Amino acid sequence: MDDLKTFLIEKVLLFESDTLSPEAEKVLSQIRREKTDVPVVYVSSNSSSIIAGSEKTYNALKLFAEENEPGTVVIKVGCAGPANYEPVICIQMPGKNKLYFRNITEEKVEPLMNGVFHNDISEEDLIGQSGSKGFELWPGIDFLEDIPFFALQKRLVLGNCGCYDPGRIEEYIAVGGYRTYLKTIRHYTYDEVCDLIERSGLRGRSGGGYLTGLKWKQALNTPSNARYLICNAKESDPGAFSDRLVMESDPHRLIEGMAIAAYAIGSSNAILYLKAGSEHARAGIQNAIEQARDYGLLGHNIHSSGYNLDIVVRMEPGAFVCGEETALINSLEGKRGMPQLKPPYPTTAGLAGKPTVINNVETLMNVPLIMQNGPEWYRTIGTFSSPGTKIFALAGRGRFSGVIEVEMGTSLRTIVEDIADGIRDAREFKAVQIGGASGSFITSDDLDTQVDFDAMRRQGFSMGSGGFVVIDETSCIVDLVRYYMDFICKESCGKCIPCREGTGRMLEILENVIRKPANEDTGTTLERFRGVMQLETISSVMKDASLCGLGQNAPNPFVSALKNFREEFEEHIFDRKCRANVCRGLRTFIIDVEKCTGCTVCAGKCPVNAIYGTRLQPYFIVEDKCIGCGICYDVCKFSAVIVK
Amino acid sequence: MCWYFGQEMTEDIENIITKYRQGRREDLIPLLQEIQERLGHLPEEAIIRVGSHLGLSTTKIYGLATFYDQFRFIPSGRIHISVCHGTSCFMNGSQGIIDKLTEELKTAPGQTSRNGNFSFDIVTCMGGCYHGPVITVNDEYHIHVSQDQIPELIRKLKYIIEND
Questions:
Q1: Has residue A632 got a pLDDT over 90?
Q2: H-type helices in A492-574, by residue range?
Q3: How many Å separate Cα A458 from the centre of its chain?
Q4: What CA–CA distance (Å, rounded) separates A46 from B128?
Q5: What is the CA radius of gyration of chain B?
Q6: Between A247 and which of A78, A93, A281, B115 could a Cys-Cys bridge form, CB atoms 3.0 to 4.6 Å apart?
């Protein structure tokens, strides 16, 4: 093992020329398992796959390999993206293309493996094949690259995800990793790195879209004896999971990106600020840092370059507002995570009063690519004002879901209709929600908007953290707005009044709209209508007067929903009707006399005893008692309960 | 998840605290996190001890710890249930699960039931959006959970506890 380490350091990492010696190429291709003599099985194992049961699949595969095909190698890799296919496994037979299979749960392992080893491949579980020249094709099987989900993506940042074992640094070095970093710290000055990144036009991916190179320069040009680089891996928006997948599948590139960024601002302290609860990502990152330290890529006087760097992982203790830069710094200093007035910006006075650069995971993942291929190459991808790609965490009701990466300039329609492949169960499309709890709803009229910081801003949308939720007709927009407001209201730090009181008041009004009034005196139609009018005023006040982005953007879901779905709000207020039948308070149920057999199931399940009747005779629901919980509707086997 | 008190706990706290230097406020959160990881919650004794080590008043520490969602001051139950309440899980009906659990366990989210058997809390996103609603029972994942399955699940768990 030590021989391999010395070899990789001397012949690969520190090798000056761009083309490696044939001997080194051969070793690297072996590590990449290009020419394998034994079957290799790759199991996706990020947290989303583990939730779907990939650990059990892995154990079953191990057992199968031991018993039936000794010599078969089973390894865990990251995830390539499609969450609906999890757990994904990939089988590479010697000399043949890789085969990908979907939804391989524990019990499917044995039939599948038996089939593959005897050349009888089950079409049902197959996704496709993938491979390069020199490998034998599987006849009659589609290529992975031809499936729209993959064909329309431009996978730069996600390029390594699902391809290598994130637990082994050798495999990352074999795909070209860490060479750029060592070249950077040995041959470039701080200014040159900042210049290169600025010329590439890389913009911060956390939503604001500030030029990364410019930010670094500001920190570099502030005189100080210490500087800090913080990687903000706290994606706490409900429904955003892309950073987590990236960190779990490709932790080494994140470390390389952080190391280059830290070098560019002349900092020798980098901090990775991780979200609470992402234990799997934390273990992977810690392991990756240990290995990088072992290879001398972190530490004191890194490979005689005179540069010192250490990366520390800190867990965020669970507060949404800590995603904001100044709140994050406060939390790192051991204080309550409350935002502060800017300026001074963190680039001049941040952590411990020193210049601090805070970048998010996706931004830093782009950095090694730019340093490797040059800013001109990066400019050729994407649009003029926003070069590069953007990662989205596709979720909701699309047929496909998972983490995707598209070139800037792709229209939102392409993502919804082609990559997500439309809506599940042939339902009607309603809207897309981009940017998590502070994002907006986008209807089909605006779907032709391009994924681009400026184009989106012109339309009044924010890109946010990359949550991309597809909503269909079965979801109620008013209820979703209430859900987001409930979330923000709980997470508001309480420092400034517009946010603390505004969110609480907005939630109260929205709850009034979707709730059944306790009696007729409170909650009249006029009151509800007036409430929604007041919401508009509160929104504008919060936008103007809140201290940080959390409060300023909190009304976004409501404002965009009212603009696009006004009729749905009106239905809730005046007709007391929810067209998606989601709002519990507004549902009323009746029993169809023709269909009811009097089986007494609904009466037994009703939590408030609102259903009366005689056995084997049609039952009826007392409307005044009914709380609209819908249990009778769910339990009725004869579809005799009708929603009114 | 831990069920011991007194001497042993004091030793544990002491072992963790000595790893950190005295009087550095930036160590406060990692220190509290480590204690919570070991003990499952933050007992009063630990807060007092941390205060004297870092030179902070206990009110300051308590004020900080209540600000963040992660810290608990009562021990979590023998069975701890987390419910994902991210956007996708919400659209698939996680609210119903939360209501059902509250009703079945007679415990509010973030609390522990009186007999110390159950505790449950709500988390923002576990990352399994396609498989929602996702819940974990003592770190074991259950996917595509519907609210009708909850009573059955709780009955099973109660049976396990009683026969343990």
A1: no
A2: 497-514, 525-545, 549-553, 556-564, 566-570
A3: 24
A4: 10
A5: 18
A6: A281
In this structure, what token pair is assigned to residue A155?
Answer: 């996978």
Q: How close is the nearest chain B Cα to the Cα of A317, in Å? A: 5
Asked if the ipTM is above 0.90, the reply is yes
Query: Three-class SS of residue A40?
Result: strand
Query: Contacts by A568-573 with C-beta closer than 8 Å and gap 24+?
Result: A568/A476, A568/A477, A568/A478, A569/A478, A569/A513, A569/A532, A572/A478, A572/A513, A572/A514, A572/A528, A573/A513, A573/A525, A573/A528, A573/A529, A573/A532
pLDDT value at position A164?
Answer: 87
Pick the CATH number of B7-67 from 1.10.10, 1.20.120, 1.10.287, 3.40.1620: 1.10.10
Question: For position B2, what pLDDT does the model report?
Answer: 46
CA angle at B156 for the pair A278 and B119, rounded to the nearest 5°: 45
Per-residue pLDDT, A249? 93
Q: Which CATH class is domain B79-162?
A: alpha beta
Is residue A619 within 8 A of residue A636, CB to CB? The reply is no
Q: What is the pLDDT of residues A221-252, one digit of tens each?
A: 999 999 999 999 988 788 788 899 999 999 99
- Please report residues of A whose CB lies closer than 8 A to that of B143: 51-53
Closest CB from B69, B88, B143 relative to A319:
B69
Q: State yes or no: pLDDT of B55 exceeds 90.
A: yes
- Considering the entire predicted model, what is its pTM? 0.92
8 Å CB contact of B130 and A333? no
Residue A411, SS3 per DSSP: strand
